[in-house]
Amino acid sequence: MLVSRTATMLRAVPSRMRTGGAGLRMASSLASPSPRPKPCARAVQSPFSVGLGASPPSPIMSTVALLSRARAASTTPTPAQVQTPRPASRQAEDDKAMDWNTFFKLRKQRRRLQLAFSTVACFGGGTAGAIFLSTGALDRLVAQFPLDPFITLGLMTFSAAALGWLLGPIIGTTVFYMFKRSIQKEMTKKEVQFFARIKKNRVDPSSASASNPVPDFYGEKIQSVAGYRQWLKDQRVFRKKRTTFI
Description:
8 helices, about 65% helix, elongated
């Protein structure tokens, strides 16, 4: 009886030991942390991955890209820094630009030509008017004026002469540029600059008086650079007299 009971106990011990070992192994497996999956290496992001919902680039890659762009922009010359060579035609025009002494010289020649044509046109207009009135074609018109006929005819002749005087500068300018057509553009440009200077530096004529007249308001008497400087001095003298009442 005792022997059989002991044998039964000995047979039950290995099974219990196997059960306990399995329990210990299960407990140790539950207690130990599960290994985390290793992160895979991030693949190179293609330009089309942004639109397909891929992960954004890392801050380091973004910084490197910005630095490379800034370096490329600093080394690339801007359009303002690029110096384009001036055309040969523009350089030739600048070399042929008219100076002020030449301008005043040509202006004096043109003025003399205008004066000559004004004189010729004045005498020609007066003579033509007198000849035309002597034919009696306007006797009915002359009779309607409440003046003596000789006075009326004289006024008409004077009007024809004045019309010729006014047409003289137009004819003289046309003839002048007919022979010097190459300088017409430069003369026009210089005249615009000259009259702009006159308008800027001339005095206010509202404060003129008999003892302090306006000195050449339109600058018609200026015939040289020295004359222009004298004109500026006259303007300063006028302003000084206006303020000091000398």
